[in-house]
Every structure is written in C-alpha cells, then in structure tokens.
C-alpha cells in the first residue's frame, strides 16, 4: 500500500471533492483520481462514493480514513523526532463548545507549557465537528454539549464510533444581557418577555438522528423573531455589551468575565432544560501529560462556575 496514496485519500475526505483536494495538494485531478482508484484496488474496498456533488466516504471508507489519519500522524511524529534533532514535539488538540469556563481553563493550561517544542490546537465548534475532528482530522480530545433529552442519541452514536465519554458538567442556561438592558431590571424574567429583543445565537446546532430543521425548531423557539447568528464567542459578548436590546442563552459565567463586558446573568423561571458538557476521546487513546494538565485546569474552572457539582 502506497503511503502517498493514503495521504491523498485523507485530503480528499477532508476537502469533500477531487477538485478542492487537487488545488490543496497541487496535483492534477486525473493523477489524484488514478491514485485513489489504485489504493481502492490494493485494499479491495470502495473508499468513496462519487457523485456530481462531490466525494463521500462509504462506511468502509470512513473506517479506513480513521486508520489512515492515525498512521499519517504517527509517521509525522517519527519524522519530527528524528529529523528535528531528537526533540519530541508536544502535541495537544481539542475541539470544544463556545464556553467561557473551558476557554479560561485552556488559557491557564497554556501558562504551564514547558519550553519544549509544541503544537497546540484549540477549536471552538459544534458537537458534530468535534466528533468528526477526532474521527477524521487527528484531534485527540473533544468536549460536546447537548440537551439532556438527547442523551440517548449522542451516547448511541459515541458507542458506535468507538469513543469514550465522561460527564463534565450539567447545567441550565440562563440569560446574559447588558447591564443597561431593560431585561436586567425586571424582578422576574419569563420567555414571553424576550419577544421584543434580539437573540444572539450559535448558527450550527446539531443532534445525531435528528434533521437540522427539527434541531433548530427546538433550540431556536418561535417566541423570538429577530436573531443574530455568530459563530465566535468573543463577537457574541461584544454585541451584548454594545446592544442593550440583545440577549444570549449561556451556561454560568465567571463574575469577572461579566464585569469585563458590562454584562449581567439572569435566570429565566420558564427555562427548565438541562444541558450536559461531555469529554470524548477514542477508546484506544491513552491520555498524555498535556491532556491531563488541561483536564486538571478544566476541573478547577468547572468548580468555579458550577460550585455545587
């Protein structure tokens, strides 16, 4: 089996098409296509379903790409050791929800890095991409967030994909608004009180086995007619601090973070839904020293935000 062909297949899986992979790899499309066909012939499997819309992994192809990614990462690590003066490069990679206590833990974790060569990857994204990053993109850790009523959907999928999962925290969302918002001055807030205001929301909710429309209907209820979708957490807080007519649903935030942006956090008595943050990684993966350093900081920050847990 040709390692170079394996690398081509992994890049096509990431890009989703021969055209895009060709541009990234700087290889002519016919040569790239021929290499993949030779790889499939050597293995005796079909890695990709080909269509006018792109290249999609078959079940066998998905399994192969997971193995191939691990192999290529191992080869890269060996090259780093022996071509880079025998210095072992520290590696840490994690995909997480947009959560302040997790970001704070990561910031403190980076303060404890040694002077040795290191590559650190921190990706804020939704649960689907966090899982995919572990399975297909070489990430080692992930934290996913989902509503408690979807627990079975996620656990079934995690078991099917061969991923360990450990509960980090359970919580209810509360409202975060500017200190100047009329909502901040109410004695008690109900869902109907939110109707005139603008919700700042994540644009990419995901639940396995449910359609995107079903998930959006549940996570983005119809009582609010104006929404601003922002993928990046810092941008969300900037909007809240500048626009007193906006609000966001959030897990508990540290007091110092609220004060930094001129925000307050308020409970909504109608909101009963419980969410979970869950740490995930492959069942055959052994946590490294860096992984355990981060998890230690994460537990410390969690206790500050969720003192009852």
Question: What does this 3D model show about the protein?
Answer:
The protein has 309 residues and is an alpha/beta fold. The chain has eleven helices and twelve strands. The protein has helices spanning 3-15, 18-25, 29-43, 59-83, 100-110, 127-136, 151-160, 212-219, 233-242, 255-261, 289-305; strands at 48-51, 54-57, 90-96, 118-124, 141-147, 163-172, 174-178, 198-201, 226-229, 246-250, 263-266, 274-282. The protein has a five-stranded mixed sheet, sandwiched between helices. A five-stranded mixed sheet has the order 9-8-10-7-11. Strands 1-2 form a two-stranded antiparallel ribbon. Strand 3 (90-96), helix 5 and strand 4 (118-124) form a beta-alpha-beta unit. The relative contact order is 0.14. The mean pLDDT is 88.
Poorly predicted regions: none
Shape: globular
| Helix content range | 40-55%
Query: Biggest sheet, open or closed, and with what strands and sense?
Result: 5 strands, mixed
Number of strands: 12
* Alpha plus pi helix count: 11
What is the CA-based Rg, rounded?
22 Å
Hey, roughly how much beta strand do the residues contain?
15-25%
Distance, first to last CA: 50 Å
Question: In order across it, which strands form the biggest sheet?
Answer: 4-3-5-12-6
Average pLDDT across residues?
88
Query: H/E order of the elements?
Result: HHHEEHEHEHEHEEEHEHEHEEH
The SS-based structural class is alpha/beta
């Amino acid at each position: 089996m040709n390692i170079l062909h394996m690398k081509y297949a992994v890049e096509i899986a990431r890009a989703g098409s021969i055209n895009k992979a060709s541009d990234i790899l700087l290889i002519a499309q016919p040569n790239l296509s021929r290499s993949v066909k030779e790889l499939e012939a050597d293995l005796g499997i079909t890695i990709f379903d080909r269509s006018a819309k792109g290249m999609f992994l078959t079940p066998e192809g998905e399994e192969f790409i997971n193995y191939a990614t691990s192999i290529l990462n191992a080869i890269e690590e060996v090259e780093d050791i022996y071509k880079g003066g025998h210095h072992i490069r520290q590696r840490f990679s994690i995909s997480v929800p947009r959560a302040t206590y997790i970001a704070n833990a990561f910031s403190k974790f980076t303060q404890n890095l040694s002077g040795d060569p290191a590559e650190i990857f921190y990706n804020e994204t939704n649960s689907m991409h966090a899982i995919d990053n572990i399975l297909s993109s070489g990430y080692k850790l992930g934290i996913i967030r989902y509503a408690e009523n979807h627990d079975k959907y996620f656990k079934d999928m995690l078991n099917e994909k061969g991923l360990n999962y450990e509960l980090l925290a359970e919580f209810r969302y509360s409202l975060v608004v500017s200190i100047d918002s009329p909502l901040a001055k109410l004695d008690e807030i109900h869902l109907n009180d939110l109707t005139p205001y603008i919700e700042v929301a994540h644009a990419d909710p995901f639940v396995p086995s449910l359609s995107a429309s079903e998930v959006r209907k549940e996570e983005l209820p119809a009582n609010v007619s104006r929404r601003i979708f922002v993928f990046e957490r810092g941008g969300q807080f900037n909007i809240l601090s500048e626009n007193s007519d906006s609000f966001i649903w959030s897990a508990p935030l540290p007091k110092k973070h609220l004060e930094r942006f001129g925000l307050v956090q308020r409970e909504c008595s109608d909101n009963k839904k419980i969410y979970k943050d869950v740490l995930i990684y492959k069942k055959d993966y052994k946590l490294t020293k860096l992984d355990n350093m981060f998890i230690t900081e994460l537990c410390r920050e969690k206790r500050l935000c969720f003192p009852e847990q």
